[in-house]
Specification:
heterodimer, A: six-stranded parallel β-sheet, two-stranded antiparallel ribbon, B: Rossmann fold, seven-stranded parallel β-sheet, six-stranded parallel β-sheet, 28 helices, 22 strands, binds iron/sulfur cluster
Chain lengths: 180, 774
Amino acid sequence: MKPYWDVNILTGTKTARIIEDPVQFAGLIKKATRPLYILGPDTVDRKIGDKLFLKYCLDLAKAGNLPICATAHVQKKMEEFGVQPNSSYDIIEIVNHLKDPEWQGVNKEGNHDLIVFSGVRCDLAERGLATLKHFAPHLKTMALCRFSHPNADFALPVIRKDEKWQEYFASLIANLIGDR
Amino acid sequence: MSKKNKAETLNIITNQVDTLNIIKGEDTWEPVGPTPLPQLPDLRNWSMRLLKTYKPFYAPFCDLCCNCTYGKCDLTSGKKGACGIDIATHQARWVLMQCCMGLACHGAHGRHLIDHLIEKYGEDYKIDLGMQVDVEAPIIRTVMGLKPETLGDLRTAVEYVERGLIHLVSSTHTGQEGNNLDFENKALHAGMLDHVALELTDIAQIVGYGYPTSIADTPLVELGWGAIDKTKPVVLAIGHNAASVNSMIDYLRDNDLEDKVEVCGICCTAHDVARYSDKAKIVGHLGKQLFFIRCGIADVVMTDEQCVRPDVPEEARKAGAALIATSDKISYGLEDVTEKEIDEIVRLVSEEKRQVLILNPEKAGAVAAKVAVVLAPNRKKGFIDTEAAIELAKDCIACDLCSQACPNMLSIGKAIKQFAANDIAMLSETFKRCFTCGKCEQKCPQSIPIVKIMQAVATKERYNVRSGRGPIHDVEIRQVGSPIVLGTIPGIVAFVGCSNYPKGDEEVADMMDEFARRKYIVCASGCAAMAAGMVKDKEGKTIWEKFPPGFEAGGVLNVGSCVANSHIVGAAIKVANIFAKLPGRANYECIADYIINRVGACGVAWGAYSQKALAIGTGCNRWGIPVVLGPHSAKYRRLYLSRKEEDDWNIMDGRTEKMTEEYVEPAPEHLAIVIESKERAMVSIAKYCIRRNDTPVGRQIKLNHYIALHKKYIGEGLPDDLHLFIRKPTDVPMFFKREVMEYLKEIDWKPRQQVGLPTLINTYPTKANIADIK
Ligand code: SF4
Ligand code: SF4
Ligand code: SF4
């Protein structure tokens, strides 16, 4: 499937599995032993409807009990909502750590087995996902982004309408609550 | 290496030196260091030592390789190509190819200028950079061991670059180099040669055209499309080699036309013609090329080389402007009319509307001036008005195909739709982030001329930028050398490179302003210097009017075009060579070691897009200067990163000549890194100016900025790696003392010794002499 942005069209052979159903997406997150949720600055810059994208992401992290890595300057906004990230690396730095299977992860409990990306600038996210695709076979990547990401292992279809995107999040959150 | 081999190698070097007469026997300015005219193997150990700490990080752009006819080869999941190459090595090869392109551009630019100037003035024409600059070519001296005194010596330097380039390009062929680290050594070598090329090019043009040198307070040049006087005949120069446009200035001066013809430029040619004539103006950076040509203000477009759009002839024709190409690098399939008489060419261009190639700068300059004078009176020029633009936008059906095509992922479709409804705010914000590449228009099913519509929302204000000042003065280095090395001037931050900004010019201006107010030394060049000038504060002042132009704490200086970046690196070298009196001649490793351990310099290429910018950045990395890149630069595919807590940071204490046993601070933490937002970048830049040699007072000042910026942009608390940079309580900044001491107690931090004389020399096999750094 073609991603929303032309700059992210895949020139390659190994492309993401598109997960249309949020229940299935939630199921994949639930299966992970040590997931990590990476939040980029688009969570602060974009809204879905009239609610900040970051709010949805924080609700999701809470529902799924996902540790957060705040990239760029996301931490600042998180603090306004009274939430501290588990770590603050910039996107390239966290990807660099994730490449190493021996890395102990943001909670020092071992490297993560599932990485979920939201709100990282789409062209940069795609580069980070490419690095992980090629150099981190020990983990899986998910792009929780409405613009779709071919270099992830699992990605969403392009979701154009705000209402659809809100529904996807709501269902994802509902299906994660209490399970981790 | 066996003794015999070593002797042979030395012999080869000596023979080469004798044969090429590169290092003249009578030169006694400094003893010749261990690596004169270094070839690929000579600094390989230095590269490998850097790469041990700063490991390559690859972000493949493509799963495939299509380099040769065996391909395409799928390189995913550990698969190798038909030739046996793996994905990491293929990325490294790709990066080397790109660095070679960049190097070749600077080298060929220098070669053209030097040949041209030698033809004009002879090879014995003296290099004189004025009263304030004795160490005229710190890069060439340090790398090659040559002290260039004449244009002929600069030709010798470009010949050295050319020889190196053949070997580098050769290794990118299928079935050549097979190891990614060795490819990286070659890329670092290409970067180093690139810096030689930059320096020789800028010195050649300074002496050949009499550009400012030995002066800091250069004039302010008018900047922005709003500054261009449409009532006059207008000639627009685009590119990087000002030979032809400078010749045009000569023609205008000789014919008393300098006040009657408006000369302006885009990209580095603009900087350089503004260094030549105080009447020349700068339209803007390369991102506004298509926009400005389509405005139709230029009567003649004159292209030279590098970063010029391939569709300039088509666009110039559509705008009704004449086109004169002046470089063998960009000939556009045009007829070469160099041998024809000037008046005949003027007739062909103005009457027959022919687009031409003229390879003689003097002739090209004269023709451009004459054609502009002939054409201008009959052309209608000006920006489209808002009403007409809104009418054009009304065809928009809100399909958003344009946005999807935008390389900067701008919501241009929404902006056009809102503009059609008379709401101009979003489009004017979008324009600030737009490179006017035209990708959006190509996708539009309604054929809406988006770039043209943008004329209606583009600011028409006049801005300014300080004209390029060339080298940093020896006396400035003597004044700031000590505070830089002690750390009490917190750093030198250089904003360089192209204009592929994620969020527009303002980001560069904001970052420069932040560091200048914090009393860093802020340097700029090329498109970054222009971008910074395109922003005014509340009082209507640009950054160029707000801060002093000297190489001093809180100074903001423009060295000039991209080739003038050499002077920023040159300043770091001069701190070692002039202030610390380190022998510099052919002593690359010692000087680079000094820089990485003691000179808190950080490059910022926030909009780097070109292969040249990659070569420049990679060259900085070999000198030990970290470079921060904006998000688009992840597409270069390779960075150099460390891992501060996991990696081995042990180094040598030059005083005891023993390896350190305690943890040593990870400074600088990375050599090449992409950062996603300007907010994070500012915090990181402050951190990357920390050096192991900082005195406690210097470290306090640097950490004060690191903490303050962190609190301002990232979060309320302290940076989570702060403890790694605190050696003793005396390193802790007074202002944050209580908070920091509490934090250190909480994490059970233990003080450690400051390394007496931090060095990498002798931590790896080297011919460099550790005594030199003492
Ligand atoms: S260079 Fe190697 S990997 Fe690339 S196409 Fe040729 S055989 Fe395949
Ligand atoms: S012209 Fe501007 S808006 Fe259009 S695609 Fe290019 S950068 Fe995007
Ligand atoms: S592609 Fe054309 S019609 Fe579609 S949204 Fe963009 S400007 Fe409007």
